Amino acid sequence: MLHVGSRRFQAFVLTAWAAGGLAVAVAHGVEITKTGGIAVVVNADNPFPRPLPISSLRALFLGDTRRLGGQKALPATTQDKEALATFYATILDTNESAFKSHWLKKVFSDGLQPPIQMQSSADLLDWVRRTPNAVAVVPARDALNKKGEPWPGLAVVLVIR
Fold first, then answer.
1. What is the DSSP annotation of 82-150?
2. What pLDDT sits at residue 51?
3. Order of strands across the sheet with 116-118?
4. How confident is the model over 83-113, as pLDDT tens digits?
5. How many helices (H) does the chain have, and how many strands (E)?
6. Which residue, 147, 139, 134, 133, is CA-closest to 121?
7. What is the pLDDT of residue 145?
8. Phi/psi zone of residue 131: left (φ > 0), alpha (ψ -120 to 50 degrees), beta?
9. Among 63, 78, 85, 98, which residue's Cβ finds the most Cβ atoms within 10 Å?
10. Residue 42 C-beta-side C-alpha neighbours within 13 Å
11. For residue 43, which of 132, 137, 138 has the smallest C-alpha distance?
């Protein structure tokens, strides 16, 4: 398994990016395929660094921090099984079972709450639009409108295909 901070992971990311398998979305005109992959979206008005470093996302979604770029952040995910599996494997370097176990410990030992989970991407994207400090993981196919642009009020800060 590749660890996010390892040289092997960095080499994998660079190789995948060069081969077109990994796209980092920094601004407008992000291309997202209609199948597979995940996108990390934030409220368009928030001051989080862009692109968001993978290490920062990992720390946020594992409860090691509650801040991004000095600002409070609220992590959330979809319940889409395929998107979550991609997110766990690529960003968190874990799986669903280990993630749930990790958060069970965090809830009882630290009193923290796990990332919010919403059933539909539409509800999640609407929540991000209304929540200035939200950071959400959605299936890549749901992150952009039919014109290939982020939905109004949202910014796509990372895409992994």
1. HHHHHHHHHTSSS-HHHHHHHHHHHHHHH---PPEEES-HHHHHHHHHH-TTEEEEEEGGGTB-TTSSB
2. 81
3. 22-23, 154-160, 38-43, 134-139, 74-78, 116-118
4. 999 999 999 999 999 999 999 999 999 999 9
5. 5, 8
6. 139
7. 83
8. beta
9. 78
10. 24
11. 132
Per the prediction, the chain carries an average pLDDT of 81
Token pair listed for 145: 């409108």
Alpha-carbon Rg for the chain in angstroms: 15
* Tokens, residue 66: 């509650």
What is the number of other CB atoms lying within 10 angstroms of the CB of residue 41?
Answer: 30
d(CA 133, CA 127): 10
Q: Could you tell me the CA-to-CA distances from 30 to 26, 148, 157 in Å, in that order?
A: 8, 7, 10
Residue entry with tokens 């997202």: 32
